[in-house]
Amino acid sequence: DGVEIEWVWSAGSNKANEYLRSDAVDLGSTAGSAALLARANGSGIQTVYLYSQPEWSALVAPPGSDITTVEGLAGKKVAATKGTDPYFFLLRSLNEVGLSGNDVEVVNVQHADGKTALENGDVDAWAGLDPYMAQTEIEHGSTLFHRNIDFNSWGFLNARTKFLDEHPAYVTRILVQYERARQWIRDNPDEASAILARDADLSKDVADKELFERTNLDIDPVPGPTQTAVLEEIIPIFEAEDQLQPGADVNQALAELFNTTFIEEAIAQSGAGS
Question: How far is CA 3 from CA 6, 223, 252, 258, in A?
């Protein structure tokens, strides 16, 4: 019917949220934490789909580092991309051991630049993100010294509410294709990894680690209570670390974040599902 899809590359959840807020894209993928923060701070978005349960974030040290625990980060320089899951992973990890963002020097760079800074010795540690994290682990000998899958806030596909109102049929059709792709990857993992390696310019080992070890696609794609519980754990970090704009009602934002209408219709149309 002449509808064209334009894919826009995003360097991180913070960039995807910028594109959504500025109407540069109609749908954008982010971590759950980033989606909630964006809506709380006034972005007119809703989450319409879950595409994965990832372990895409961890804390990373270069080879030979004496940093082996979160406590060891006190007073250190840590690369992180503010407004993204790795940044909130860092803050939650610090909070868990009685530290805060004020106890480290956060070097705010995009994910790929954080990897470079770590490998060049410009920072002591990095709040990492795959595939860059898998790259430095395999190709540079870096160490993931602190992991916690529960501090990773799921893969959210978000849409501008205006787009949802104006083009509901398009949204449903897009989600039908997302569901087909998710199922195809589950059924054809080796071919999927080869495509990921080719299109993202990764080694096959890196693609395999990201896709097979740190990405769970065997999920219910409908956002609901599980994700709400994850995000409720992040809200105190938003508040303690001054992430919210004046007047922001983060609890109301969470209550209004999920719109399951479109994925439920997509599943009904395609017969797909987890």
Answer: 10, 27, 35, 26
Task: Name which of 197, 19, 225 is nearest 6 in CA terms.
Answer: 19
How many other β-carbons are positioned within 10 Å of the β-carbon of residue 66?
7
pLDDT tens-place string over residues 71-95:
999 999 999 999 999 999 999 999 9
Cα separation values, 163 from 4, 20, 48, Å: 15, 10, 12
Is residue 89 a contact partner of residue 151, using CB atoms and an 8 Å limit? Answer: yes
| Alpha carbons 190 and 185: distance in angstroms, whole number | 8
Q: What is the DSSP letter of 245?
A: P
Q: pLDDT tens digits, residue range 220-268?
A: 999 999 999 999 999 999 999 899 999 999 999 999 999 999 999 999 9
| DSSP-H helix ranges across the chain | 13-21, 32-40, 85-96, 111-120, 132-139, 161-166, 168-187, 189-199, 204-208, 225-240, 250-257, 261-270
Report CA 105 to chain centroid distance, whole Å: 22
The tokens for 44 are: 């007119």
Torsions phi, psi of 51, nearest 5? Answer: -105, -15
> Please, what is the Cα angle at 147 between 52 and 19, to 5 degrees?
45
The C-alpha atoms of residue 128 and residue 219 are separated, in whole angstroms, by 24
Q: Classify domain 57-151 at the CATH topology level.
A: D-Maltodextrin-Binding Protein; domain 2 (3.40.190)
CATH 3.40.190.10 in the chain, residue ranges: 13-54+154-270, 57-151
Query: Which architecture, in CATH terms, is 13-54+154-270?
Result: 3-Layer(aba) Sandwich (3.40)
